[in-house]
C-alpha cells in the first residue's frame, strides 16, 4: 500500500459533526491489479472498498468485523467486501472485465455498471453467534448515495458519504478516496444548512487529493483547519487472511460423496481465494486423510 493510504477521524469543535476522510489510492490500485479490473469494475469495486473502510471505522471496535454485499443486477454483478476496525479490507467483484462507455461528462458510468435493482447488505460480526444483518434497496448504484441511504435507514444516523475513484485512459488508478460526515445529536440547524451549501461548492475528491494526498486536506476544505479536533490517523491496507488451514476446513466440511468424487476423479483439489487470488493445492493424500477423519466421526 502507499504511505498516504490513511483514514483520518475528527470531530468539529462545535460538536455538530463527526467526520472521516480517507486516501485509499494504494488499496484500490492493489485491488485493480490483483483482480485485473477493467475501468467500470475497478471504479465500482474501488468506491465500495473506500465506502466500506469509512463505514467500518465508524461502526466497529476491537475485534469486530463487517461484511458488505452489494448487488444491483448490473453488468459488474455482485461485490463482497470484508473489513475490520483496524483499517484492513479485502474484496472482490463478480465480473472484473466490464468497461462501459463513459457518461456525457466523461466519467466512468458506475451507476450503469452496478445497477439499482438490488440491495446493499451489511453484516456486523460483533462477537455473537449470528452476525447483525441489515439491508436497504440501492438508491442510485453510485455507491456514495447507497451508503448514505443505508446509514439513514438502518443506522438512523443523518450522514453524507462521498467516494470517488479516478482512472486514466490507460486503466490506471490515479486517486481513490472519500469522506463520511455524521450529524451529532443536537446538531445546530444553521450548521447543517451551511454544510449542505458547502458540499455543493467543494472541488471533487480527486481534485482535493491531487492538491494534497493527506486526507486531512478534505476535512480542512470542508470545515477549516482551525475548526477540527483530529482524533485518529489510521493506516489502511488491502489484506487477505486466507490460509491453507482455513480452506482445508472448508473442504473437510463437504459431504463424503463430494469428497470421494474429488479423490476418484480429480485426484486432488486446487482452491483459489476470491479475495486475493492466491492458490492452494491439496494432494490426493491430503483428501484421503480428510476422508479418513470423516470416517471416524
**Sheet having the most strands:** 6 strands, mixed
CATH T-level fold name of the largest domain: Hsp33 domain
Provide the helix percentage.
25-40%
Number of domains: 2
User: Between the first and last Cα atoms, what is the distance in angstroms?
Assistant: 45 Å
The CATH architecture of the largest domain would be 3-Layer(bab) Sandwich
- The low-confidence parts are none
Average pLDDT over all residues: 94
Order of strands in the sheet with most strands = 7-6-3-4-5-11
What is the radius of gyration?
Answer: 21 Å
Total DSSP E strands = 13
* CATH C-level label of the largest domain: Alpha Beta
Summing up helix and strand content along with how strands pair, one would put the structural category as alpha+beta
The CATH homologous superfamily of the largest domain is called Hsp33 domain
Give a structural overview.
This protein is of the alpha+beta class and 297 residues long. The chain folds into two domains: 6-238, Hsp33 domain (3-Layer(bab) Sandwich); 244-296, CBS domain Like (Alpha-Beta Complex), CATH 3.90.1280.10. 36% of the residues lie in helices and 29% in strands. It contains ten helices and 13 strands. Strands 7-6-3-4-5-11 form a six-stranded mixed sheet, covered by helices on one side. A five-stranded antiparallel sheet has the order 8-9-2-1-10, sandwiched between helices. Helix 1 packs across helix 2 (39-59) and helix 9 runs antiparallel to helix 10. The longest helix is centred in the N-terminal third of the chain and has 21 residues, at 39-59. It is globular, with a radius of gyration of 21 Å. The model has no long low-confidence stretch (mean pLDDT 94). This is 33 kDa chaperonin. Belongs to the HSP33 family. GO terms for molecular function: protein folding chaperone; unfolded protein binding.
